[in-house]
Design goal:
The complex is a heterodimer. Chain A is mainly beta. Chain A has one domain (10-225): Pectate Lyase C-like (3 Solenoid). Chain A contains two helices and eleven strands, in the order E-H-E-E-E-E-E-E-E-E-E-H-E. In chain A, strand 1 (10-13), helix 1 (19-27) and strand 2 (37-41) form a beta-alpha-beta unit. The longest helix of chain A is centred in the C-terminal third of the chain and has 13 residues, at 193-205. Chain A starts with 9 loop residues before the first strand and ends in a 15-residue tail after the last strand. The mean pLDDT of chain A is 94. Chain B is an alpha+beta fold. Chain B is 26% helix and 32% strand. Chain B has helices spanning 18-28, 64-72, 96-106, 128-134, 182-191, 201-214, 219-229, 271-274; strands at 3-9, 36-42, 51-56, 76-77, 82-84, 87-93, 111-116, 119-125, 144-150, 165-168, 171-179, 232-240, 243-248, 257-260, 264-268, 284-286, 294-297. In chain B, the strands form three sheets. In chain B, strands 8-2-9-1-15-14-16 form a seven-stranded antiparallel sheet. In chain B, strands 3, 4, 5, 6 and 7 form a five-stranded antiparallel sheet that branches. Chain B is globular, with a radius of gyration of 18 Å. The chains are: A mainly beta, B alpha+beta. Chains A and B meet through loops of A and helix 8 of B.
Chain lengths: 235, 298
């Protein structure tokens, strides 16, 4: 699929330019000047596409990408047009990363803020160590998702794999389908009005129309915050 | 790190292009494994009752014709040894045990890379690009191939420690990962009579499969037992006479991605290696699930 670039947009073809050249051009942008819309063609599985952006531009990547794309994002909107590899939107601070296909393992790892939308499925460890990022997965997530999650929201419209939320701190997990099982110190929790509001807002922003009432909420049982020898068998 | 690729043609009409597509896939994985590279290619079968035996000697000047004469004194050897760089492929009528025994006694400086009806394993140190050029992989034909680019972690960088490892007639294994219980497992397999040539952990995985197959497991059952007995990280690709199989450990840290079209099934450590294949834009793409055996055959 090739999108028609809008007037004034910048087009970079990765069959003719390196990822380093692309990222440097994006890093050279100042807050108020330069093209606001970028189109990246022929990524062919390249790693680290559109990483470390700090200004509010929109980058459309047309095709499948490799590892750690759109990592450390601040303010920018990065739309990945196909499947993407390990660690997409890793350590995102703000902005939006939208994956049109599936994401491999560790999507949104250690993200501090912003919104990550995955139209397909995410593999193992989605949202590992998330620290404030919001993640909406329209399909299912693999095992150990939200492992050691500290803050933010993980919304899964499909099913969740084994050991969901293992060793979780204060993040919220919403799952519409079935959770294969819950990890250590993760439990199902009551869905109160404040949670319905958070979930409804995230679903609307992700363009998902599943009713909020179809989701269950999971979170921390708060028994493993500090080491307690009486809980040794739970670790 | 290491990189793995596999390409299995469902459409026999593409067999003349196998080497071309496979060599491109393997070259893409150079960045994951610059120390050495190797491959198993399943090509033209030996006649009924005969075996293809692929041998290696460190010297490109080695006198393979003399070895052909020596083998001919003991076995019925088809004329026309095919020499490819440091490797040579013989076709002869013998059992695997007899030919391995003879070579071990009479020609201990020659290494048996593979034995089987269709398999040929070739591997050397150096960058994958140099290995591909050395063996003219792009010009090879066949039904399927598996390959490996190695970034050594557990043992020395040499030809014997390169992948694939032979696991029996027409069987081989490539591995991305590292096994933590290989030392103890090697000892117990040695007591069963499995031979090891290196300190390499992946060779133990190959020996383990050989052992399970000898005990009567089929390949799927052998890989199922591997999930119980092998401790560590792994994505394995196993080449068989008529197909290949893929297995990831329960944690599934080591990457794998697969693609299927009407013409082929392909696997690789990264999508970059699949991006070079024809028709990839319309292929079905997926990540193999952890602890799940995937296999294809004709």
């Amino acid at each position: 699929m090739t999108l028609k670039a809008t007037t004034g947009a910048r087009v970079i073809d990765l069959s003719a330019h390196t990822v380093r050249e692309l990222n440097q051009a994006l890093h050279d942008l100042k807050a108020a000047d330069g093209p606001r819309e970028w189109f990246v063609r022929e990524p062919r599985g390249a790693h680290a596409v559109a990483c470390g952006l700090t200004v509010p531009v929109t980058v459309h990547v047309e095709g499948p990408t490799g590892y750690y794309c759109a990592g450390m994002n601040q303010l920018a909107t990065v739309i990945l047009g196909g499947n993407t590899g390990t660690g997409v939107a890793e350590n995102m601070m703000s902005g939006l990363v939208h994956v049109r296909g599936n994401a491999s393992q560790s999507a949104g790892a250690s993200g501090h803020g912003g919104l990550l939308i995955i139209d397909g499925n995410a593999a193992a460890r989605c949202g590992i160590s998330m620290k404030g990022i919001d993640i909406v997965v329209k399909g299912s997530v693999g095992h150990m998702s939200a492992f050691m999650a500290q803050a933010g929201n993980l919304v899964v419209c499909g099913d969740a794999g084994e050991a969901l939320g293992d060793s979780i701190y204060e993040a919220r997990i919403f799952v519409r389908g079935k959770a294969a099982d819950l990890g250590a110190d993760c439990m199902e929790k009551e869905m109160r009005e404040e949670h319905r509001a958070i979930l409804g807002d995230l679903l609307a922003r992700a363009g998902v129309d599943h009713p909020v009432g179809e989701f269950r909420r999971y979170g921390s049982a708060r028994k493993l915050y500090n080491f307690n020898v009486d809980h040794a068998s739970h670790y | 790190m290491c990189g793995i690729v596999g390409l299995f043609l469902k459409n026999p009409g593409l067999e003349s292009e196998l080497g071309l597509h496979f060599s491109r896939m393997l070259a893409c994985m150079s960045s994951r494994g610059p120390d050495s590279a190797g491959f198993a290619i399943y090509g033209h079968p030996a006649p009924d009752g005969a075996l293809k035996v692929t041998l290696q000697h460190p010297s490109e000047a080695y006198d393979w014709q003399a070895l052909a004469g020596s083998l001919g004194g003991r076995f019925k050897v088809q004329p026309g040894v095919r020499v490819v760089s440091t490797h040579a492929v013989f076709t002869l009528a013998a059992s695997e045990g007899d030919v391995r025994g003879f070579l071990g006694r009479e020609h201990p400086d020659v290494t048996v890379m593979s034995v089987g009806s269709t398999i040929e394993i070739m591997k050397e140190t150096g960058t994958p690009e140099s290995v591909i050029a050395r063996f003219d992989v792009a010009g090879m034909t066949g039904s399927h191939a598996v390959g490996h680019t190695r970034m050594a972690t557990e043992s020395a960088v040499n030809t014997q420690g390169s992948h694939p490892f032979s696991t029996g007639l027409d069987l081989c294994l490539v591995h991305n990962g590292s096994l933590s219980n290989h030392s103890r497992l090697r000892d117990s397999l040695r007591r069963e009579g499995i031979e090891f040539r290196t300190d390499n952990d992946s060779e133990v995985a190959a020996g383990y499969l050989t052992s399970r197959l000898r005990k009567g497991d089929d390949l799927s059952a052998a890989l199922g037992h591997a999930l119980e007995d092998l401790d560590g990280f792994y994505t394995f690709t196993v080449g068989t006479n008529d197909g290949f199989a893929v297995l990831r450990d329960r944690i599934a840290c080591k990457p794998a991605i697969m693609a299927e079209t009407d013409d082929y099934v392909a696997m690789a450590s990264e999508y970059r290696s699949l991006a070079v294949l024809p028709g990839i834009a319309d292929a079905r793409l997926w990540e193999p699930e952890p602890a799940t055996v995937y296999s294809w055959s004709r």
